[in-house]
Give the backbone structure.
Amino acid sequence: MNKKINYQEEKSLIMIYTLTLSPSSDLLIKSDKFELEEVNRYKDFMLLPGGKGINASVILERHGFNNIALSVFDKNTLDSFKEIFEKENVKIQNIDHPDKTRINIKYYGAQNSFELNGPRTVLNSNLKSQISEKLNKLTSQDILLIMGISDEEFLFDILNILNKNKVNFVIDVDSSKFKEFLSFKPFVVKPNIDELQRNLQVQIKNENDLINSMKEIQELGAKNVIVSMDKNGSYLLTDQNEIFKANIIKPINIVSSTGAGDTMISIFSANYLKSNNAKESFKLSNSAAMGTVASEWVGDLFKTQEYLENVKVEKLELKK
Protein backbone atom coordinates (compact mmCIF):
# COMPACT_ATOMS: atom_id res chain seq x y z
CA MET A 1 0.00 0.00 0.00
CA ASN A 2 1.31 3.46 -0.92
CA LYS A 3 2.19 5.79 1.91
CA LYS A 4 -0.37 8.57 2.18
CA ILE A 5 0.64 12.16 2.70
CA ASN A 6 -1.22 14.52 4.99
CA TYR A 7 0.38 17.92 5.27
CA GLN A 8 -2.65 19.37 7.04
CA GLU A 9 -1.44 17.63 10.23
CA GLU A 10 1.92 19.38 10.33
CA LYS A 11 2.79 22.64 8.65
CA SER A 12 6.15 24.35 8.59
CA LEU A 13 6.72 27.09 11.15
CA ILE A 14 8.46 29.05 8.40
CA MET A 15 6.16 31.35 6.44
CA ILE A 16 6.50 30.95 2.69
CA TYR A 17 6.01 33.95 0.40
CA THR A 18 5.90 33.84 -3.39
CA LEU A 19 6.70 36.89 -5.50
CA THR A 20 5.24 37.36 -8.99
CA LEU A 21 6.33 40.66 -10.53
CA SER A 22 4.80 39.96 -13.95
CA PRO A 23 1.46 38.20 -13.33
CA SER A 24 -0.94 37.35 -16.13
CA SER A 25 -4.42 36.29 -17.10
CA ASP A 26 -3.94 32.92 -18.77
CA LEU A 27 -6.49 31.92 -21.41
CA LEU A 28 -6.23 28.14 -21.78
CA ILE A 29 -7.83 26.85 -24.99
CA LYS A 30 -8.47 23.21 -25.91
CA SER A 31 -9.39 22.18 -29.43
CA ASP A 32 -9.03 19.27 -31.83
CA LYS A 33 -7.16 21.23 -34.48
CA PHE A 34 -5.68 24.60 -35.34
CA GLU A 35 -5.08 25.80 -38.89
CA LEU A 36 -3.39 29.02 -39.97
CA GLU A 37 -5.41 31.44 -42.10
CA GLU A 38 -8.63 29.67 -41.13
CA VAL A 39 -11.46 30.41 -38.72
CA ASN A 40 -10.78 28.03 -35.83
CA ARG A 41 -13.41 27.17 -33.24
CA TYR A 42 -12.49 25.74 -29.87
CA LYS A 43 -14.47 23.50 -27.52
CA ASP A 44 -13.25 24.36 -24.05
CA PHE A 45 -11.46 27.22 -22.37
CA MET A 46 -10.46 28.42 -18.92
CA LEU A 47 -9.34 31.86 -17.75
CA LEU A 48 -6.93 31.51 -14.85
CA PRO A 49 -4.53 33.68 -12.85
CA GLY A 50 -1.01 33.15 -14.15
CA GLY A 51 2.63 33.74 -13.32
CA LYS A 52 5.22 31.36 -11.90
CA GLY A 53 4.80 32.57 -8.33
CA ILE A 54 1.01 32.34 -8.57
CA ASN A 55 1.32 28.75 -9.82
CA ALA A 56 3.63 28.00 -6.90
CA SER A 57 1.20 29.47 -4.36
CA VAL A 58 -1.67 27.36 -5.70
CA ILE A 59 0.34 24.12 -5.75
CA LEU A 60 1.71 24.78 -2.25
CA GLU A 61 -1.76 25.39 -0.82
CA ARG A 62 -3.04 22.23 -2.51
CA HIS A 63 -0.34 20.33 -0.62
CA GLY A 64 -1.07 21.97 2.72
CA PHE A 65 1.82 24.46 2.75
CA ASN A 66 0.55 27.77 4.05
CA ASN A 67 1.86 30.70 2.02
CA ILE A 68 1.24 34.28 0.95
CA ALA A 69 1.37 35.39 -2.69
CA LEU A 70 2.81 38.85 -3.36
CA SER A 71 1.84 40.25 -6.74
CA VAL A 72 0.93 43.27 -8.88
CA PHE A 73 -2.32 42.51 -10.71
CA ASP A 74 -4.44 45.48 -11.73
CA LYS A 75 -7.50 45.82 -9.49
CA ASN A 76 -10.11 44.69 -12.03
CA THR A 77 -8.15 41.59 -12.99
CA LEU A 78 -7.56 40.73 -9.34
CA ASP A 79 -11.28 41.10 -8.62
CA SER A 80 -12.11 38.79 -11.53
CA PHE A 81 -9.98 36.05 -9.94
CA LYS A 82 -11.29 36.58 -6.41
CA GLU A 83 -13.49 33.46 -6.50
CA ILE A 84 -10.62 31.28 -7.76
CA PHE A 85 -8.21 32.52 -5.09
CA GLU A 86 -10.81 31.95 -2.37
CA LYS A 87 -11.52 28.43 -3.63
CA GLU A 88 -7.79 27.64 -3.68
CA ASN A 89 -7.29 29.29 -0.26
CA VAL A 90 -4.54 31.44 -1.78
CA LYS A 91 -3.85 34.53 0.30
CA ILE A 92 -2.92 37.46 -1.93
CA GLN A 93 -1.09 40.60 -0.88
CA ASN A 94 -1.48 42.64 -4.05
CA ILE A 95 -0.19 46.05 -4.99
CA ASP A 96 -2.59 47.38 -7.62
CA HIS A 97 -0.87 48.04 -10.93
CA PRO A 98 -2.28 51.03 -12.87
CA ASP A 99 -2.04 49.16 -16.20
CA LYS A 100 -4.09 46.19 -17.36
CA THR A 101 -2.54 42.82 -16.48
CA ARG A 102 -1.10 41.07 -19.53
CA ILE A 103 -2.95 38.19 -21.18
CA ASN A 104 -1.22 34.95 -22.15
CA ILE A 105 -2.84 32.53 -24.60
CA LYS A 106 -2.04 28.85 -24.16
CA TYR A 107 -3.41 26.51 -26.84
CA TYR A 108 -3.52 22.75 -26.34
CA GLY A 109 -4.63 20.71 -29.35
CA ALA A 110 -4.68 17.07 -30.32
CA GLN A 111 -1.87 17.60 -32.84
CA ASN A 112 0.02 20.62 -31.55
CA SER A 113 0.25 23.29 -28.89
CA PHE A 114 1.61 26.80 -28.57
CA GLU A 115 1.76 29.81 -26.27
CA LEU A 116 1.47 33.55 -26.90
CA ASN A 117 2.77 35.43 -23.88
CA GLY A 118 2.21 39.13 -23.32
CA PRO A 119 4.99 41.65 -22.56
CA ARG A 120 6.68 41.79 -19.17
CA THR A 121 4.97 43.97 -16.59
CA VAL A 122 6.70 47.34 -16.23
CA LEU A 123 7.14 48.54 -12.65
CA ASN A 124 7.30 52.26 -11.97
CA SER A 125 9.22 53.74 -9.03
CA ASN A 126 6.10 53.92 -6.85
CA LEU A 127 5.34 50.21 -7.34
CA LYS A 128 8.96 49.28 -6.65
CA SER A 129 8.89 51.32 -3.47
CA GLN A 130 5.72 49.59 -2.25
CA ILE A 131 7.12 46.14 -3.06
CA SER A 132 10.37 46.95 -1.26
CA GLU A 133 8.40 48.13 1.77
CA LYS A 134 6.58 44.78 1.97
CA LEU A 135 9.79 42.80 1.54
CA ASN A 136 11.52 44.80 4.27
CA LYS A 137 9.01 43.32 6.72
CA LEU A 138 10.21 39.75 6.07
CA THR A 139 12.46 38.12 8.67
CA SER A 140 14.84 35.20 9.02
CA GLN A 141 11.77 33.05 9.82
CA ASP A 142 10.45 33.58 6.28
CA ILE A 143 11.41 32.32 2.84
CA LEU A 144 10.67 34.12 -0.41
CA LEU A 145 10.19 32.32 -3.73
CA ILE A 146 11.15 34.77 -6.50
CA MET A 147 9.73 33.39 -9.71
CA GLY A 148 9.30 34.56 -13.30
CA ILE A 149 10.44 37.47 -15.42
CA SER A 150 11.21 40.88 -13.95
CA ASP A 151 13.36 43.98 -14.06
CA GLU A 152 16.89 42.64 -13.44
CA GLU A 153 18.15 45.74 -11.65
CA PHE A 154 15.16 45.68 -9.32
CA LEU A 155 15.92 42.03 -8.57
CA PHE A 156 19.31 43.12 -7.23
CA ASP A 157 17.54 45.63 -4.98
CA ILE A 158 15.29 42.84 -3.73
CA LEU A 159 18.20 40.48 -3.08
CA ASN A 160 20.01 43.18 -1.12
CA ILE A 161 16.92 43.65 1.07
CA LEU A 162 16.71 39.90 1.69
CA ASN A 163 20.43 39.67 2.42
CA LYS A 164 20.24 42.58 4.88
CA ASN A 165 17.34 40.96 6.77
CA LYS A 166 18.79 37.42 6.54
CA VAL A 167 15.75 36.16 4.63
CA ASN A 168 16.11 32.79 2.92
CA PHE A 169 15.05 32.77 -0.73
CA VAL A 170 14.57 30.66 -3.83
CA ILE A 171 15.08 32.19 -7.26
CA ASP A 172 13.72 30.79 -10.51
CA VAL A 173 14.26 33.36 -13.24
CA ASP A 174 15.83 33.15 -16.69
CA SER A 175 18.28 36.04 -16.65
CA SER A 176 21.62 37.06 -18.10
CA LYS A 177 22.51 38.06 -14.51
CA PHE A 178 21.92 34.54 -13.18
CA LYS A 179 25.54 34.02 -12.09
CA GLU A 180 25.53 37.33 -10.22
CA PHE A 181 22.33 36.38 -8.39
CA LEU A 182 24.09 33.26 -7.08
CA SER A 183 26.44 35.36 -4.94
CA PHE A 184 23.43 36.12 -2.69
CA LYS A 185 23.34 32.37 -1.80
CA PRO A 186 19.84 31.22 -2.80
CA PHE A 187 18.40 28.19 -1.00
CA VAL A 188 17.37 26.53 -4.29
CA VAL A 189 17.88 27.25 -7.98
CA LYS A 190 16.58 25.22 -10.93
CA PRO A 191 18.39 26.10 -14.15
CA ASN A 192 17.72 24.07 -17.28
CA ILE A 193 20.41 22.67 -19.56
CA ASP A 194 20.35 25.67 -21.91
CA GLU A 195 20.73 28.09 -18.99
CA LEU A 196 23.64 26.10 -17.58
CA GLN A 197 25.45 26.01 -20.91
CA ARG A 198 24.83 29.69 -21.59
CA ASN A 199 25.79 30.98 -18.15
CA LEU A 200 28.77 28.71 -17.61
CA GLN A 201 29.87 28.75 -21.28
CA VAL A 202 30.15 24.97 -21.42
CA GLN A 203 28.82 22.11 -23.52
CA ILE A 204 26.96 19.46 -21.53
CA LYS A 205 27.25 16.17 -23.38
CA ASN A 206 26.80 13.59 -20.64
CA GLU A 207 25.89 13.04 -17.00
CA ASN A 208 29.38 13.83 -15.75
CA ASP A 209 29.34 17.20 -17.56
CA LEU A 210 25.96 17.95 -16.01
CA ILE A 211 27.07 17.13 -12.47
CA ASN A 212 30.23 19.22 -12.86
CA SER A 213 28.10 22.15 -14.02
CA MET A 214 25.79 21.75 -11.03
CA LYS A 215 28.82 21.72 -8.72
CA GLU A 216 30.05 24.95 -10.33
CA ILE A 217 26.64 26.57 -9.72
CA GLN A 218 26.92 25.50 -6.08
CA GLU A 219 30.44 26.88 -5.81
CA LEU A 220 29.11 30.22 -7.07
CA GLY A 221 26.71 30.37 -4.12
CA ALA A 222 23.58 28.24 -4.59
CA LYS A 223 22.88 25.84 -1.72
CA ASN A 224 20.72 23.31 -3.58
CA VAL A 225 20.67 22.85 -7.36
CA ILE A 226 17.93 21.07 -9.32
CA VAL A 227 18.12 20.38 -13.05
CA SER A 228 15.11 18.86 -14.77
CA MET A 229 15.51 16.67 -17.85
CA ASP A 230 11.74 16.53 -18.48
CA LYS A 231 10.72 12.95 -19.35
CA ASN A 232 14.27 11.78 -18.58
CA GLY A 233 13.94 12.68 -14.91
CA SER A 234 15.94 15.21 -12.92
CA TYR A 235 19.05 15.73 -10.78
CA LEU A 236 19.55 17.30 -7.35
CA LEU A 237 22.80 18.48 -5.77
CA THR A 238 22.14 19.22 -2.10
CA ASP A 239 23.65 21.53 0.48
CA GLN A 240 25.01 18.36 2.12
CA ASN A 241 27.04 17.60 -1.02
CA GLU A 242 24.84 14.67 -2.00
CA ILE A 243 23.59 14.11 -5.53
CA PHE A 244 20.36 12.33 -6.40
CA LYS A 245 18.83 11.31 -9.69
CA ALA A 246 15.07 10.91 -10.07
CA ASN A 247 13.86 8.56 -12.79
CA ILE A 248 10.33 8.32 -14.14
CA ILE A 249 9.39 4.63 -14.22
CA LYS A 250 6.50 4.76 -16.70
CA PRO A 251 5.65 7.54 -19.19
CA ILE A 252 2.49 9.48 -18.37
CA ASN A 253 -0.07 11.24 -20.52
CA ILE A 254 0.98 14.87 -20.91
CA VAL A 255 -1.86 17.37 -20.77
CA SER A 256 0.19 20.54 -20.25
CA SER A 257 3.78 21.21 -19.25
CA THR A 258 2.92 24.69 -17.92
CA GLY A 259 3.72 24.97 -14.23
CA ALA A 260 5.72 21.74 -13.93
CA GLY A 261 8.95 23.54 -13.05
CA ASP A 262 7.13 25.87 -10.66
CA THR A 263 5.68 22.80 -8.96
CA MET A 264 9.00 21.00 -8.64
CA ILE A 265 10.99 23.86 -7.12
CA SER A 266 8.25 25.03 -4.74
CA ILE A 267 7.32 21.59 -3.38
CA PHE A 268 10.97 20.61 -2.95
CA SER A 269 11.81 23.85 -1.14
CA ALA A 270 8.80 23.73 1.19
CA ASN A 271 9.13 20.06 2.07
CA TYR A 272 12.92 20.16 2.53
CA LEU A 273 12.58 23.08 4.94
CA LYS A 274 9.93 21.14 6.86
CA SER A 275 11.47 17.66 6.86
CA ASN A 276 15.21 18.24 6.31
CA ASN A 277 15.05 15.12 4.12
CA ALA A 278 16.38 15.95 0.66
CA LYS A 279 15.75 12.55 -0.92
CA GLU A 280 12.12 12.37 0.22
CA SER A 281 11.51 15.98 -0.80
CA PHE A 282 13.03 15.38 -4.23
CA LYS A 283 10.85 12.32 -4.80
CA LEU A 284 7.79 14.27 -3.71
CA SER A 285 8.60 17.23 -5.95
CA ASN A 286 9.04 15.01 -9.00
CA SER A 287 5.76 13.25 -8.27
CA ALA A 288 4.00 16.60 -7.84
CA ALA A 289 5.48 17.86 -11.12
CA MET A 290 4.09 14.80 -12.89
CA GLY A 291 0.72 15.60 -11.36
CA THR A 292 0.90 19.08 -12.87
CA VAL A 293 1.93 17.74 -16.29
CA ALA A 294 -1.14 15.48 -16.17
CA SER A 295 -3.44 18.42 -15.32
CA GLU A 296 -4.93 21.32 -17.23
CA TRP A 297 -3.64 23.81 -14.64
CA VAL A 298 -1.49 22.55 -11.76
CA GLY A 299 -1.62 19.26 -9.87
CA ASP A 300 -2.98 18.49 -6.43
CA LEU A 301 -2.24 16.21 -3.49
CA PHE A 302 -4.32 13.37 -4.91
CA LYS A 303 -2.32 13.32 -8.16
CA THR A 304 0.97 13.58 -6.24
CA GLN A 305 0.05 10.51 -4.21
CA GLU A 306 -0.99 8.73 -7.40
CA TYR A 307 2.43 9.24 -9.01
CA LEU A 308 4.67 8.68 -5.97
CA GLU A 309 5.41 5.09 -6.92
CA ASN A 310 6.22 6.19 -10.47
CA VAL A 311 9.37 7.98 -9.28
CA LYS A 312 12.59 6.18 -8.35
CA VAL A 313 15.28 8.26 -6.65
CA GLU A 314 18.85 6.97 -6.47
CA LYS A 315 21.88 8.47 -4.81
CA LEU A 316 24.88 8.91 -7.09
CA GLU A 317 28.51 8.91 -6.05
CA LEU A 318 30.27 12.19 -6.62
CA LYS A 319 33.50 11.79 -8.56
CA LYS A 320 36.46 13.67 -7.17
